[in-house]
Amino acid sequence: MQKSKIIITGGCGYIGSHTAVALQQSGFKVLIIDNLSNSQENVLDKIADITGIKPDFEKADCTNPISIKDIFSKNNDAVGVIHFAALKAVGESVAHPIMYYKNNLNSLMNILENMVEFNIPNLVFSSSACVYGEPEKLPVTEQTPLQPATSPYGATKVMGETIIKDTVRAHPELNAIQLRYFNPIGAHPSGKIGELPNGVPNNLMPYITQTAAGIRERLSIFGNDYPTHDGYCVRDYIDVNDIADAHIDAIQYMIKNNPGIETFNLGTGRGLSVMELIKAFESANNIKINYTIAERRPGDVPELWAISDLANQKLGWAAKRSLEDTLKSAWQWQKNVSGLK
Ligand code: NAD
Ligand code: UFG
Question: What's the rounded Cα separation, in Å, for the pair 165 and 144?
């Protein structure tokens, strides 16, 4: 039987590469489109090492109407598109808003236009917990009102969801699932793929692993006087492989149910403070992290974690990796990248 083809934009990146592995292992054929602005082409070989299959690859920019039209016209047998391609650094987006709006929104509109033109019916969109801003009530569900975005990056996700909603309304033959990821962490258990931040990491997990590896002298914890149970910011850290699995469930759900547009939180339902995450990392890996308490980081909300019951009810999805295994995989990946034993 011929395999169903999925186009993954941004498939060489952190979440995309894990999703490409999971898709291939679930029997899908994968075509990756990536401009390699935040990733490397050798990820394709790593995916092949894990799955035995090297995904098809087109090096292209999703904002480029000519190349995307050409790729979609040659692949109009695809059953779906998973759209990861985006710039994602919150601070950088504040400094370079136009770059973020151009890249993230033009990519999305270009992809949608070509899906309509070439009758590719199913879209999964990478949205984010940041669409909830600083919510009045926790944990958040999909019914929690969205708040104004606190950065241009966040605004591209809020606007992206609106653009998709309007497009699906105008083209009822199109289905879309918007997945609001909370804080993805960890790496593939093989240690062959993981998160490779450019330069100094913005996110907590790679900062922790780079500190453990001696690349950074110490971790700065941004604030210890938040109105939370221990004074540190609380987030919903979720294994990247659990996030990847949800994309397969979403594609299969759309193929089966033709649902129009739906939106799901992807979290664990467990809020962990920065200090609790550090302590859990230390105990999972038997290693100490140097840290210091620093000023609050502008734009950080005190607490954010999710109820993901809807994804469980409709997609049959739930986060299932243990925190300990996730933290071990993060450290294993860092050791592999750093050439440590
Ligand atoms: P990533 O940077 O590792 O991957 C994104 C990939 O997209 C990269 O390989 C990059 O080269 C590519 N890309 C960017 N712009 C492109 C363009 N115009 N054309 C073609 N390729 C392009 O990021 P990630 O962590 O894997 O995130 C994937 C998606 O999930 C993004 O949309 C991001 O906003 C969203 N998201 C991520 C997080 C997180 O914490 N990692 C949280 C919520 C949402
Ligand atoms: N933190 C530190 N020190 C660091 C880095 C982070 O103390 O060096 C703290 C932050 O203050 C925050 C927590 O660790 O309290 C998590 O910070 P991250 O930067 O890892 O994650 P965020 O929750 O700020 O943001 C992430 C993604 C965004 C996404 C958002 C949704 O980076 O893309 O989750 O909530 F939009």
Answer: 17
Instruction: Find, among 183, 189, 241, 244, the residue nearest to 208 by Cα.
Output: 183
The three-point CA angle 279-285-291 to 5° equals: 40
pLDDT band at 198 (very low <50, low <70, confident <90, very high): confident
Q: E strands within 135-266?
A: 175-181, 183-185, 219-222, 234-235, 237-239, 261-266
Instruction: Tell me if 151 sits within 8 A of 96, measured CB to CB.
Output: no
pLDDT number for residue 1: 65
Pocket around ligand 2 at a 6 A CB cut-off:
88, 90, 128-130, 183, 202-204, 207, 219-222, 233, 235, 274, 297, 300, 304
**8 Å CB contact between 29 and 105:** no
Is 148 within 8 Å of 109 (Cβ atoms)?
no
What is the C-alpha separation between 74 and 120, in angstroms, rounded? 12
Task: Give per-residue pLDDT as tens, 272-282.
Answer: 999 999 999 99
Measured from the alpha carbon of residue 236, the closest ligand is 2
* Separation of alpha carbons 157 and 149, rounded Å: 9
What is the token pair recorded at 115? Answer: 């899906």
pLDDT digits (tens, 9 = 90+) for 218-263: 999 999 999 999 999 999 999 999 999 999 999 999 999 999 999 9
Residue 301 one-letter amino acid: V
- Residue 230 is encoded by which pair of tokens? 């221990």
* First CA to last CA distance, the chain: 43
**pTM (two decimals):** 0.98
User: Residue 41 C-alpha to ligand 1 middle, in angstroms?
Assistant: 15
